[in-house]
Write a structure and sequence with these properties.
heterodimer; B: alpha+beta; Penicillin-binding protein 2a (Domain 2); five-stranded antiparallel β-sheet
Chain lengths: ~450, ~625
């Protein structure tokens, strides 16, 4: 059993093809990022580190690390994340907590600097998406009930947000909450509940902003100079817009920007790299970058829609939404549509942990894309059913492998996928042996 | 059987049952799912549209683009080195780091604390002060925490930043910016301070400029292109530069000046000047040493002086170089000019006898000798040795106003000498035809009253006599080195003041003056030419009695002048002496004898004995 069904199933349900379109878009963004990071950082590198390649060399190394992460993530069957999501989430919460506690200790202590730490908030972005996907998936249709959906979601978001706001990275918290809310929405949450969540989140956000001096100041500056950002007292805002203006339609050419020179745009190689792109490549360049991100979003949502199961769909949606939101928010800051947030431009901005996290996210998306079924928006109902019909027919006789009521609901869609990764369970191991035997027989 | 997709609830039952049971809701879910995705697309679309709108607004329409300029924090650029004629460094750049920070990036007290602690440990900046600054200027985008910290401390901060960037990516300390900040370093402290000038940030300026002296005159030459930032590796040879280095090294800027100044001469002159101020109780003074043949300035000292490395603490009035920027009535030294003019024009000869009756009327004014006496028949040399005003006025009358003022102009008075120092002034010579000129001025001008000169004008005019009558343009920069190419300053003849014969005769006369009149100026073993002058200081109420400005100008050796020295002392203590002959003249003697020794000029007897055919 199994073998024939499996081999018969694979070509149709899981093409085995990665989404090369997505990979192409990401590669283009990465290449552009390397070029722009160099252009935007060489004055600072020369000045601060004797080395014009200082930043771009590090970015390249991180890119290699991220590419490794992408390859590994693309090879890990994404359903494994469902299992790992709880320990991952727990680890992330611990890491966030640890940073806060250590942070308290390091006040006034010099050894702080010498203890390196990764940025747990970057990891938090992805592990929250994984966890929320798994959690929403386990709830299924029950998320429409307040006790099953609204309350736990609220508690989870509250805990994560508090920890991240204490980092303090308000905008990362906002990004995580908005991404999770989008996932909740896509998962089929009741609109009234979403409205409640939105209201509570907004109120909390306003309170936090009020409490945090700098955020309130930034927002008040933003409101003051919304119509005339060049005159803004926020140096970064004024410089960002000026860089864009200097760029004009076609830009001043690579390496010719003023923005990266000391005294102009701060953090030109990381948070504000979009300003450098705008100055050196002009409107043409900025629109191209925007287009690349839209293509990325298109591929991402396509993967979500073609995902063979609910978990994959939610995961793909979350990753895509998170990346696109980051990109759009980053651009919105430079064009002075939004107050400064400290968000990086995914794949393009300098920054190790952000780059690796984003690439791991893309790896997960690519893995989901491998199992994509031909379910388009037009024929979603039909094709969607077809895929699972096959699953059900193929494995109707098999007992659900996952224990516990919460998990069992998704057993069907799970099995269909787990089946393709025979190393997944002990039973799968047996099946693998059986398959090997049958293969021998065939020979 | 069909089951709708991905999220049907599956109770532990047979698959068929599940499908049937949840067919309806699942199908509905599917439809809703699509709707939800479209909503998502709409949300992202709106965000995208707003970004595109703003992009087009800024980049295509460029509203307000006129103002789209930034005034960056101006970097201080490297500046050339200034060395003396033998390559001894007088001014060089020394490098420090300026520590600045973007307080906006440190809006958490915790971050401020982190940065302040790190800066205290790495660079010794008081943490509490840093925190206060960061809090007070939280809304600024640029805040200078320290103007200049030593290179090694800065390197420590940079290394720490590098390490933190590698380990943690973003860290509060990366909000700190270190900028190489050159500062002028003066290995000889205040030596030749007035001549060198200072480098300062003028009001409202964003970068350092040379002010006064060589720094001021050659500011644009010495300065590297503005805004070109210094990079770190290029300063490495300079980290150990300071004190030991006495040899010329091309500077980072690659644009250096070699002065005509001789550090040894300058040192002698400054020492003698200081001593003279103490001995004679004078308030201020200047000594100028020039090479008559070329016009090269060998030394230029004024006291009281200041430390150019700490000019901010000095009285601003001290920064002005009195040798070129202060005018005064020269008094009797000016008789040299009148005598030379009279001799050169031929109205009198060197041996001609004139009679000093003790007074002479010129225009509306009766001129008396300084001692109110009359000396009867005197030669030119005697008249100068006794410094007789009456005889000098006679020469001027013989010359006539037109010729007299022509000669004054030929000697370079009433106009700048064109010395390459910033801040030179014209002096003041009233000419016939000017409203305030009257014939009596001819008389008083002849012995140095009623006109104002600068020390360098007086020294240069005397140098013309020492140089066979040719007036040279005085200069202090001998060579300009620019990117490995050296441009040597050629001496410039401004004109001929008097004939060579007149100059020779004047030299003999001035030697006689020293021998007979200003005996305190003699230098044993050498013939020295010169003349003293004691000028009363004009005030609102007329000339002062006790307060004088004393000058002695002379050159040695008289037959082949090695240098012209002008000594000027202001307000010597009348209790000691208010006369130049007892103050400026002995100072000249001391300076000249030391310089002759310094240059190794053999005494006249040896020298002229060896060259019997010579003069």
């Amino acid at each position: 059993m199994g073998v024939n069904a499996k081999t018969g199933e694979r070509p149709q349900a899981a093409q085995g093809h990665y989404d090369w379109g997505l990979l192409t878009v990401v590669t283009l963004l990465l290449l552009l990022g390397l070029v722009m990071v160099f252009s935007a950082s060489y004055p600072r590198g020369l000045e601060g580190f004797d080395n014009p390649y200082y930043f771009v060399a590090r970015q390249f190394i991180w890119l290699l690390v991220g590419a490794g992460g992408l390859v590994v993530a693309a090879r890990i069957p994404y359903l494994l994340w469902n299992r790992w999501s709880v320990p991952l989430m727990g680890g992330t919460l611990l890491a966030l907590l640890a940073v806060i506690l250590i942070g308290d200790e390091r006040l006034g202590s010099s050894r702080t600097y010498y203890q390196g730490s990764i940025q747990p908030s970057e990891a938090a972005k992805i592990s929250v998406i994984l966890y929320v996907s798994a959690w929403l998936n386990s709830k299924g249709a029950r998320i429409r009930h307040a006790r099953a959906g609204l309350l736990p979601f609220g508690v989870l978001m509250g805990v994560v947000s508090v920890l991240i706001v204490l980092q303090p990275e308000i905008t990362v918290a906002v990004l995580i909450v908005v991404t999770s809310a989008i996932m909740l929405f896509v998962a089929g949450a009741d609109l009234k509940q979403l409205a409640v969540i939105g209201a509570v989140a907004t109120a909390t956000f306003l309170l936090v902003v009020q409490y945090t001096g700098y955020a309130a100041e930034r927002i008040s500056h933003y409101l003051t100079w919304m119509g005339d950002p060049v005159a803004s007292e926020e140096w970064q805002v004024s410089q960002g817009v000026q860089a864009l203006m200097r760029g004009g339609l076609f830009g001043r050419g690579l390496g010719n920007g003023l923005a990266q020179q000391t005294g102009y745009l701060p953090l030109s190689w990381s948070d504000n790299i979009f300003g450098v792109i705008g100055e050196e490549l002009g409107l043409l360049g900025t629109l191209c970058v925007l287009l690349l991100f839209l293509l990325l979003a298109y591929r991402g949502l396509r993967i979500a829609l073609r995902a063979p199961d609910n978990f994959g769909m939610l995961l793909a949606t979350g990753i895509t939404a998170s990346l696109l939101l980051q990109a759009l928010l980053n651009m919105a800051v430079i064009v002075a549509v939004s107050p400064p947030t400290g968000m990086t431009l995914p794949f393009v901005s300098y920054g190790g942990s952000s780059l690796v996290a984003s690439l791991v996210g893309i790896g997960i998306l690519l893995n989901i894309s491998r199992f994509g079924v031909n379910r388009t928006l037009q024929t979603g109902e039909q094709t969607g059913r077809k895929a699972h019909e096959r699953d059900d027919l193929g494995r109707g006789d098999r007992r659900p492998r996952l224990s516990g009521t919460g998990r069992r609901q998704t057993a069907h869609s799970f099995q269909s996928t787990i089946e393709r990764f025979p190393w997944e369970t002990a039973k799968a191991e047996q099946r693998r042996r059986a398959a090997a035997k049958s293969a021998q027989k065939r020979k | 059987m069909t089951t709708a997709g991905v999220r049907e609830v599956a109770p532990p039952a047979a698959p068929q049952a599940i499908s049937e049971q949840h067919l309806g809701p699942s199908a509905a879910t599917q439809r809703r799912e699509l709707w939800r995705f479209w909503s998502l697309v709409l949300l992202f679309g709106l965000l995208t549209a707003s970004v595109v709108f703003a992009l087009v607004l800024h980049q295509a329409l460029r509203l307000g683009g006129v103002r789209a300029t930034a005034q960056p924090h101006q970097a201080d650029s490297a500046r050339g080195t200034i060395v003396d004629r033998n390559g001894a460094v007088l001014v060089a750049d020394q490098y420090f780091y300026e520590v600045s920070v973007d307080p906006g990036q440190l809006n958490q007290d915790e971050d401020r604390q982190t940065v302040a602690t790190a800066l205290e440990q790495l660079a010794g900046l008081p943490a509490s002060q840093t925190i206060d600054l960061l809090r007070s200027y939280a809304e600024r985008r640029y805040l200078r925490l320290a103007r200049a910290i030593p290179l090694e401390q800065g390197e420590r901060i940079l290394a720490e930043q590098q390490r933190l960037t590698e380990e943690q990516g973003v860290h509060p300390l990366t909000a700190v910016t270190l900028t190489l900040a050159p500062q002028r370093y003066y290995p000889e402290q205040s030596l030749a301070a007035h001549l060198l000038g200072i480098v300062a940030m003028l009001d409202g300026a964003t970068w350092l400029r040379g002010v006064y002296g060589v720094e001021g005159y050659y500011d644009s030459f010495l300065r590297e292109r503005d805004g070109v930032r210094l990079t770190r590796q290029t300063t490495q040879p300079f980290t150990q530069l300071p004190t030991q280095v006495r040899r010329f090294l091309p500077s980072l800027a690659g644009r250096d000046l070699v002065l005509t100044i001789d550090r040894g001469v300058q040192w002698i002159v400054e020492e003698e000047l200081q001593q003279a101020l103490e001995i004679y109780g004078a308030q201020t003074g200047s000594i100028l040493v020039m090479e008559p043949q070329s016009g090269a300035v060998l030394a230029m000292a004024s006291a009281p002086t200041y430390d150019p490395g700490a000019f901010a603490e000095a009285d601003p009035a001290l920064l002005i170089n009195p040798a070129i920027s202060a005018q005064y009535e020269p008094g009797s030294v000016f008789k040299i000019i009148t005598a030379a003019a009279a001799l050169d024009s031929g109205v009198v000869t060197a041996t001609q006898i004139l009679t000093d009756s003790g007074s002479i009327a010129v225009g509306q004014r009766v001129i008396l000798n300084s001692d109110r006496a009359g000396y009867g028949p005197v030669t030119m040399a005697e008249a100068l040795a006794r410094s007789l005003n009456v005889i000098t006025a006679q020469w001027a009358l013989l010359l006539g106003e037109q010729q007299f003022y022509q000669y004054i102009e030929r000697f370079g008075f009433g106009k700048v000498t064109e010395v390459d120092l910033a801040g030179e002034i014209y002096g003041l010579v009233k000419q016939p035809g000017m409203l305030n000129w009257s014939l009596s001025d001819l008389g008083t001008n002849s012995f140095g009253q009623g006109l104002a000169v600068t020390p360098i004008q007086m020294a240069n005019a005397t140098a013309a006599i020492a140089n066979g009558g040719r007036l040279m343009r005085p200069y202090v920069v001998a060579e300009r080195a620019l990117d490995g190419q050296v441009q040597v300053t050629e001496p410039t003849v401004l004109g001929t003041a008097v004939s060579a014969e007149t100059a020779r005769q004047m030299t003999d006369i001035l030697v006689e003056v020293v021998e007979q009149g200003n005996q305190a100026a003699r230098v044993p073993g050498y013939r020295v030419a010169g003349k003293s002058g004691t000028a009363q200081i004009p005030t609102q109420e007329g000339y002062t009695e006790d307060e004088t400005i004393v000058t002695f100008v002379g050159y040695a050796p008289a037959d082949a002048p090695r240098f012209v020295v002008l000594v000027k002392l202001e307000r010597p203590d009348p209790a000691i002496s208010r006369w130049a002959g007892r103050t400026a003249a002995p100072t000249f003697s001391r300076v000249a004898s030391r310089l002759l020794r310094y240059y190794g000029v053999p005494p006249d007897a040896t020298r002229l004995g060896q060259q019997p055919t010579g003069q």
